[in-house]
Amino acid sequence: MNLLTLEDVGKTYGSVRALEGVSLTVRQGEICCVLGDNGAGKSTLIKIIAGLHRHDEGRYLIGDQEVRLSSPRQAIDRGIATVYQDLAVVPLMPVWRNFFLGAELGGRFRLDSARMRVVTQEALARMGIELDDVDQPIGTLSGGQRQCVAIARAVHFGARALVLDEPTAALGVKQSGVVLKYVAAARAEGLGVVLITHNPHHAYLVGDHFTLLKRGRMAGSHPRAEITLEQLTTEMAGGSELAELSHELGRPGPEADS
Ligand SMILES: Nc1ncnc2c1ncn2[C@@H]1O[C@H](COP(=O)(O)OP(=O)(O)O)[C@@H](O)[C@H]1O
Ligand SMILES: [Mg+2]
């Protein structure tokens, strides 16, 4: 089933054309990777999906219903969870408080903290995340661990689509691997995932579909079966442009001799 569909979506900021003619489908149980360099329009795309900005061209459908979102709340209420790179957490608050931030259990005047601790622990365990102590301040977790908690949170609160903005950009190889493992776990739970990244290796480890953006336009859209990691890397690096440059510089690249 299609969770999210973008058809020929465009967005202009003043005189800057940030997106033009972008189409994308996110299905249940699939990871759709959006790749692109700086300025390609990735964040703009996320903001449209998340209800932060409204598209001014094309159509945006959630399920089979066309929407024009005017706030993030509207996206969240429709089952779309967005995890931004600079996670909105309160560093000094325990993990469990952050997990339930804005969705606390208990009455108006008394939080059921014991229950929230247990539920947090269980929700993390369900995703295979092992944390010694949900009482530790979330600020003491590594960037990768925080991304993982955010993913578990989205799954726990019943998100149907999960949108991740460059979750591995600031992480080393090992931590990136851990985060990607939980992205795959979210897919296994039946969510549809939009994974934004500029790293074709990370995308290829988990992706089912790859969409390339270049200067706000689509520069490619491939199901996994139709593209190899090598091709994806070349496309991402601006294959033909690099070949041209290497020719100009008199230094033929690896693709020149094949
Ligand atoms: N709020 C904004 N106002 C004006 N221009 C913007 C705004 N946000 C993004 N842009 C421009 O839109 C283009 C795409 O930006 P962005 O979506 O942030 O790309 P990416 O996330 O892929 O780096 C860039 O040229 C950027 O300068
Ligand atoms: Mg960005």
Automatic annotation (TrEMBL):
Pfam families: ABC_tran
Coiled coil stretches, renumbered: none
Top-rank lineage group of the source organism: Bacteria
Entry keyword Thylakoid: no
Every ABC transporter domain range: 4-240
Molecular function in Gene Ontology: ATP binding; ATP hydrolysis activity
Keyword vocabulary terms for this entry: ATP-binding, Nucleotide-binding, Sugar transport, Transport
InterPro entries: AAA+_ATPase, ABC_carbohydrate_import_ATPase, ABC_transporter-like_ATP-bd, ABC_transporter-like_CS, P-loop_NTPase
Keyword Transport attached: yes
Official protein name in the record: Simple sugar transport system ATP-binding protein
Organism (species): Kitasatospora gansuensis
Lineage: Bacteria, Bacillati, Actinomycetota, Actinomycetes, Kitasatosporales
